[in-house]
Amino acid sequence: MTMLPTTTGGKDSTSGGSGESGGAEPTVASLSALGWARWVWRVLTSMRTALILLFLLAVGAIPGSVLPQRRVSTEQVQNYFLDHPDTAPWLDRLYLFDVYSSPWYAAIYLLLFVSLTGCVVPRAAAHYRAMRARPPRTPRHLSRMPYSARFTTSAAPEAVLAQARTLLKGYRTEADTDAVSAETGYLRETGNVVFHFALLALLIALGAGAFLGYRGNMLVVEGDGFANTLPSYDTFFPGHAVDEGDLQPFSFTVEDFRASYIDEGDLSGQADSYSADLTYKAAPEADEQTHELAVNHPLSVDGAQVYLLGHGYAPEFQVADANGDVVFDQPVPFIAREEATFTSDGVVKVPDASPEQLGFSAVFLPSATEGADGELVSDFPDARDPVVTLTAYTGDLGMDSGRSQSVYQLDTGDMAEVGDSPQLSPGDSWELPDGAGTITFTGYSEYISMQVNSDPARLPALLAASAAVLGLLATLLVRPRRVWVRAKTQDDGRTVVEVAGLVKTEGAGATTEFHRLAMTLRDRLRDRPATDTGTKE
Questions:
Q1: Which residues contact 84 (CB under 8 A, 6 or more apart)?
Q2: CB atoms closer than 10 angstroms to residue 225
Q3: Which tens digits make up the pLDDT trace of 324-374?
Q4: Which tens digits make up the pLDDT trace of 184-194?
Q5: How confident is the model at residue 296 (pLDDT cuts 50, 70, 90)?
Q6: What is the pLDDT of residues 277-286, one digit of tens each?
Q7: How far is 470 from 128, CA to CA, in rounded Å?
Q8: Could you tell me the sign of the dihedral formed by the alpha carbons of 115, 117, 118, 123, in that order?
Q9: Distance between CA 389 and CA 403 in Å, rounded?
């Protein structure tokens, strides 16, 4: 028995000529409206366009990762406006603080959906037809395949083909007069189709979540409670199909908040952990339960998730007006100016003071110390030596004008500055000039910023993403292969066996696999009598 394996390869060649054509230049016919529509549809539903749109969707998401987003933290957006007063309005005009709800991002999203649909549906239909079709007939010249091998055996052609079918178990086979053709690896294209359908499902799930779900942000001071009603939110972003009656009726109270920081080494001042102890009820009549809220450990209640976003300080003030009446006594949330030291800014508005309303702009320093230039600074985010400095104003706060106001900004247009306070530690008071009143820094609490996210399409989106990963793995790992085996009797009575293989994709190991298959077939046919049909070993 002899065997002559060969590996061949080639490349297509094209031929053409150039010359000058006589006569008039050809004219290009103009497209009709229907023709232009077909051309636009072909371009839009091409895989290249889908990839470009997918790339644009990823690029468009970059500002949403770099810049603060209103749907995540309105406080950070406000801080960005304060820190970049010139560029922030221009960025806001481009919807860069609301990237995922912007018109241009929605346009890319919808075009990608249409493009993927136009790509995937015809491709899935073609794949279905290919799976039902029989393997291709055996080519006439197997030696021209990328892999081919040839040997002779004393076994009959029927025995050779029977052994080939046994050896090609797992392949789809098609028997010919003197050959067997086999094909496998359809799972690759199946994975490709599943991947693209999963992307479509993911886009639908994300759209359904934005339509049927809602998201809201709020600040809750330590010791205070929250009820899931519309007035309780600082900012609220409902889906188009959501109204106030669709909110889950849960409530909770922030019993305690704990923040720990690294106090040694190069990472000194960085947060080590945040956690808050909550007591909550899924409904007014439900039993009270407890939950430790932490980063990546949300509270899940009736399909809604409560996430811990951040925290800050809420200095507590007591204000008496010029008549000596206590007209303000509560904590006021401040916004951190610097995350490294938690130097925080805030305002205190006292509309009930008499005879004139009072307003204070304030700076809270959790660990006050004297800086290199003699100014008061905070050198650590934990409240080791809390100090407050105030600037007082009297006049009209403008709260009755009908204009909306931020709780973190003081409108001093109709107010007069009274003066600056000394450094106030917890328990210290400052008597305002001209007998305008007294303010006492009574202490501080901590608050946490949270987000409630209700997304009924969250599970379908997870399943679609998982299916996309599985489809992609099949596309990357499965290699479509075709194998042919031909057996013919020579003039001397021996059987000439030809084995050829073709891999439709790039990848190492295909030649070795085909050669191993040919060697195995040769070994099984060794010394087999010519009359043996090969039905038994």
A1: none
A2: 15
A3: 999 999 999 999 888 888 999 999 999 999 888 999 999 999 999 988 787
A4: 888 888 898 99
A5: confident
A6: 999 999 999 9
A7: 19
A8: positive
A9: 28
Helix, strand, or coil here: 502? Answer: strand
**8 A C-beta contact, residue 164 and residue 469:** no
Query: Cα–Cα distances in Å, from 159 out to 142, 151, 165, 453, 522?
Result: 20, 15, 10, 67, 12
Which residue segments constitute the domains of the chain, with CATH numbers given? Answer: 36-129 (no CATH), 141-183+479-525 (3.30.310.80), 214-261+271-454 (no CATH)
Measured N-to-C along each axis, helices 33-44 and 103-132 cross at an angle, to the nearest 10 degrees, of 80
Distance between CA 516 and CA 519 in Å, rounded? 5
Q: What are phi and psi of 332, to 5 degrees?
A: -125, 115
Q: How far apart are CA 54 and CA 201, in angstroms?
A: 15
CA distances from 372 to 34, 362, 369, 375 (A): 75, 22, 10, 7
Around Cβ 383, how many Cβ atoms within 10 Å?
Answer: 20
Query: Which residues have a Cβ under 8 Å from the Cβ of 461 and sit 6 or more positions away?
Result: 202, 205, 206, 209, 455
Residues 157, 495 contacting (CB under 8 angstroms) = yes
Residue holding tokens 């030649």? 511
In terms of C-beta density within 10 A (0-12 exposed, 13-18 middle, 19 or more buried), how is residue 537 classed? exposed
Q: Which residues lie across from 60 on neighbouring strands?
A: none
Nearest to 345 by CA among 331, 327, 328, 362: 362
Starting at the edge strand found earlier in the chain, the sheet holding 415-420 runs 335-336, 344-350, 357-365, 387-395, 415-420
Write down the residue that tokens 């912007």 correspond to: 102
Cα separation, 431 vs 186, in Å, equals 83
Q: What is the pLDDT of residue 506?
A: 62
From the list 499, 484, 483, 488, the residue with the least C-alpha distance to 155 is: 488
The tokens for 266 are: 């190069």
Rounded to the nearest 5°, which phi and psi values hold at 414?
Answer: -115, 30
Amino acid identity, residue 180? V
Q: In the 8-state DSSP scheme, what is residue 224?
A: -
CA distance 341 to 82: 18
- pLDDT tens digits along 61-118: 898 888 888 877 776 787 788 788 888 889 989 989 888 888 898 899 889 888 888 8
User: In 84-155, where does DSSP find H-type helix?
Assistant: 87-93, 103-132
Q: Render 284-348 in DSSP notation, one character per residue.
A: TTSPPEEEEEETTB-EEETTEEEEEEEEEEEEEEEEEETTS-EEEEEE---EES-TTT--EEEEE
| Bridge partners, 413 (sequence order) | none
For the purposes of burial, counting CB atoms within 10 Å of the CB of 282, is it exposed (0-12), middle (13-18) or buried (19 or more)?
middle
